[in-house]
Amino acid sequence: MPSKFWLVTGLGLATLVNTSCNRQSQAEQIAQAATGGSAARGAASIARYGCGSCHIIPGVSGASGLVGPPLSGIGNRVYIGGVLQNTPNNMIRWIENPPAVDEHTVMPNLGVTHQDAIDIAGYLYTLK
């Protein structure tokens, strides 16, 4: 009898873990379909460009900056930088060169490449 208990418990746990992983990958798939970017590469680019020195970014180690707004939930926000409608193309445009969109922004142009901006947007759109 105890072995059946552990078998059922193990199957339930495996199902729970599998469901959680599927949710994560589903969020990444939706973000990739919207942006064309890779969330995994985007997270690496976020770290490489030092975005976390100014922003709190969930899921990015050390991203605890308090200069810019926290980026949790950015995928559900209406505006980017307070000036652009939140669409994938606008997100990419903003990431590539914020001052070109809003000359009064304090967010600097970090020289983010177009592909890196696509991938960063791919990661940010997983943050809902």
Description:
This protein has a single domain (2-124), classed as Immunoglobulin-like. Strand 1 (79-80) and strand 2 form a beta hairpin. It is globular. Helix 3 crosses helix 5. By secondary structure, it is mostly helical. It has five helices and two strands. The model is unreliable at 5-20 (pLDDT under 50). It is 54% helix and 3% strand.
| Distance, first to last CA | 44 Å
Strand order of the largest sheet: 1-2
Domains, number: 1
- What value does the average pLDDT take? 88
CATH superfamily: Cupredoxins -  blue copper proteins
CATH C-level class is: Mainly Beta
Return the structural class: mainly alpha
How is this structure best summarized?
The protein is mainly alpha-helical. The protein is 54% helix and 3% strand. The chain has a single domain (2-124), classed as Immunoglobulin-like (Sandwich), CATH 2.60.40.
